[in-house]
Amino acid sequence: MSQYIDTMRNACVKLTRPRKLVLDVLQTAKQPLSMKEIHKRIRKKADLASVYRTVNLFQTLGIAREVPLGEGYQRYELVSEGRHHHYVLCIECGKLENIDICLLDQVEKMTHFKILSHSMEFQGICNRCAG
């Protein structure tokens, strides 16, 4: 957590109670969360507007990233230095699984681009739903 607090400190951004709460929720989450899911976990301690402002600030600071899964709303997760995640989402039951592979290096070699950011998420039907 200290890397995120250092990032805020270096940007002269105070670690307010709502920011600490959102940071804690995102850090303990096992998968990306929507704004409503984040708010639900801290409901009595911060309002939904504070959650939106905080997550938007975290994105601006590079602390959090949006995870587009094609669900009609966005999910968010903390950015880990040197690591990022990709996901596969079951369109039937909503099961979300982390994928531990990334093609970034291969794409850079094939295209001779220096990739600055990317998103690679999959949608499908899990074994249980396909069944």
Give an account of the 3D structure.
The protein has 131 residues and is an alpha+beta fold. It has 2 domains: 2-78, Orthogonal Bundle (Arc Repressor Mutant, subunit A), CATH 1.10.10; 86-130, Ferric-uptake regulator, C-terminal dimerisarion domain (Dna Ligase, domain 1), CATH 3.30.1490.190. 42% of the residues lie in helices and 16% in strands. It has a 3-stranded mixed sheet, with no helix packed on it. Strand 3 and strand 4 form a beta hairpin. The N and C termini lie far apart (41 Å).
Strands, count: 5
Which secondary-structure class do the elements indicate?
Answer: alpha+beta
Distance between the termini: 41 Å
* CATH top level class name of the largest domain: Mainly Alpha
Q: Give the spatial strand order of the biggest sheet.
A: 4-3-5
Mean pLDDT: 91
Percentage of residues in helical conformation: 40-55%
Low-confidence stretches: none
What is the CATH homologous superfamily assignment of the largest domain?
Winged helix-like DNA-binding domain superfamily/Winged helix DNA-binding domain
Q: Characteristics of this structure?
A:
single chain, 131 residues, alpha+beta, Arc Repressor Mutant, subunit A, Dna Ligase, domain 1, 6 helices, 5 strands, flat
Fold blueprint:
Blueprint: H1 2-10, H2 17-28, H3 35-42, H4 48-61, E1 64-67, E2 75-78, E3 86-90, E4 96-99, H5 104-111, E5 121-124, H6 127-130
Parallel strand pairs: 3-5
Antiparallel strand pairs: 1-2, 3-4
